[in-house]
Amino acid sequence: MTALLDISGLKVDVPGRAGTLHAIRGIDLSIGAGECFTIVGESGCGKSLTAMSVLGLLPRAAILSAERMSWKGQDMRRFSRRQWANLHGPEIAAIFQEPMTALNPVLTVGEQIIESFVHHRLGNRKAALARAGELLERVGVVPVERRLAQYPHEMSGGLRQRVMIAMALMCQPKLMIADEPTTALDVTTQVEILKLLKELQAEMGMALLLITHDLGVVAHMADRVAVMYAGQIVETGSVASVLTRSAHPYTSALLDCLPTRDQPLTPIPGVVPALFGELEGCMFRNRCRFAREACADPVPARSVGEGHVYRCLLEANEVAA
Ligand SMILES: Nc1ncnc2c1ncn2[C@@H]1O[C@H](COP(=O)(O)OP(=O)(O)OP(=O)(O)O)[C@@H](O)[C@H]1O
């Protein structure tokens, strides 16, 4: 299968007063048509900057480099402003944690939802409104006529996120990036929105890059997963393999801290190290119960089998043992 998105050796540095932050440190990522790929990890590990890199929307100060970064075979590193603009909507669309920041408070939902369809000349205003109506109906923002005339603040958080989803689907993107799309919502609404996203992904045949800090979400939604820690992918593979045969102590620790009925959420002790200066060896070693001296040296990538890869000195079955 040819990948839609194919990235290798992606790095993002953010220079600042305290020095240069090495926020993303050489990650590889490939997403095929129609698949659901998740990136999971704790706050600050670089998930959002990865999404922003793919969208060409990094903060101005950030410096991106990559050995390869291609969209359907085209080199994204050489994209002009116009090419990025052409990508947003018909190729890649995105939804974020807080829809209110993405929606314009002074425009009606109707005005905003048709904007990219009209901008990309996919049809006139009437065709755009017809498509918006169909999509709003599909995502459950009804009655459509009334909703189109409303302003974002007149809707609940869950409804606003549904509007964002409909808006992202207007130009039939090949890939939807959903960055923590349900984190700001209550638990019941979270489940509904995730279910909706999964259904729409199948109906529209689009790929989904879902960013989350929740391995439970990964288990329900994804085909493949990349576990990120301190700007690197420490383990990746099919969800079935990574969740049942986790080989990296960080993945295993994330799985152990999932809340259950009898056990409340238990955080992983310790904190993510600051990503400044020379960074050698495994970044998880200061929190890892298996850490040894050699963990301060560069860590090779090892295979568990069938595309399941991890970066650790331990043998694949040692974490579970
Ligand atoms: N605009 C920015 N300027 C400076 N540093 C930034 C900027 N955006 C992100 N960073 C830093 O880059 C690192 C990665 O941030 P990122 O937002 O990608 O993490 P994340 O995994 O998405 O976390 P969260 O789940 O909290 O959003 C963090 O250390 C963060 O402080």
Automatic annotation (TrEMBL):
Gene Ontology MF terms = ATP binding; ATP hydrolysis activity
- Keywords recorded for this protein, A-Z: ATP-binding, Cell membrane, Membrane, Nucleotide-binding, Transport
Instruction: Tell me if S-adenosyl-L-methionine is a UniProt keyword of this record.
Output: no
Q: Name one GO cellular component term.
A: plasma membrane
State if Transmembrane helix is listed as a keyword. no
Q: Where is the ABC transporter domain?
A: 2-255
User: Known InterPro entries for this protein?
Assistant: AAA+_ATPase, ABC_Ni/Peptide_Import, ABC_transporter-like_ATP-bd, Oligopep_ABC_C, P-loop_NTPase
- Which Pfam families does this UniProt record tie to the protein? ABC_tran (PF00005), oligo_HPY (PF08352)
Topology in the lipid bilayer is annotated as: Peripheral membrane protein
For this protein, the record's Gene3D superfamilies field holds: P-loop containing nucleotide triphosphate hydrolases (3.40.50.300)
Which subcellular locations apply to this protein?
Cell inner membrane
Q: Which domain of life is it from?
A: Bacteria
Example GO biological process = transmembrane transport
As for family, the record states:
Belongs to the ABC transporter superfamily.
Protein name, per record:
ABC transporter ATP-binding protein
**Source species, please?**
Nitratireductor aestuarii
